[in-house]
Amino acid sequence: MANHKATKKDARQAAKRRERNKYYGKTTRNAIRDLKANTDEKAYGESLPSVISMIDKLAKKGVIHKNKAGNLKRKLSKKPVVTA
């Protein structure tokens, strides 16, 4: 455990950031999963911009790498919708 005041504070801040990053990362992964499961082409097109926005925010904050964000957006935008 940290001994200095500043190191203790840094540990607290890191824990807080880790929890926040975990929450937003999981929320975005769930949104991507729901988007992929969507079979209606119109609904897919309507929800795609909000999911892309979530991915961009994660990349901007450094939760995920910018190249990973680009790959995710590319795959989602060119995903063929299967009509059942």
Task: Describe what this molecule looks like in 3D.
It is a single chain. With 84 residues, the protein is mainly α. The protein contains 3 helices and no strands. The radius of gyration is 17 Å and the shape is elongated.
Shape: elongated
Average pLDDT number: 92
Order of helices and strands: HHH
N/C terminus separation: 56 Å
Query: How would you sum up the major sheet?
Result: none
Structural class: mainly alpha
Helix residue percentage: over 70%
Number of separate strands: 0
Secondary-structure blueprint:
Elements: H1 5-37, H2 41-61, H3 66-77
Describe the structure in brief.
With 84 residues, this protein is an all-alpha fold. It is 79% helix and 0% strand.
List descriptors:
3 helices, 0% strand, mainly alpha, 84 residues
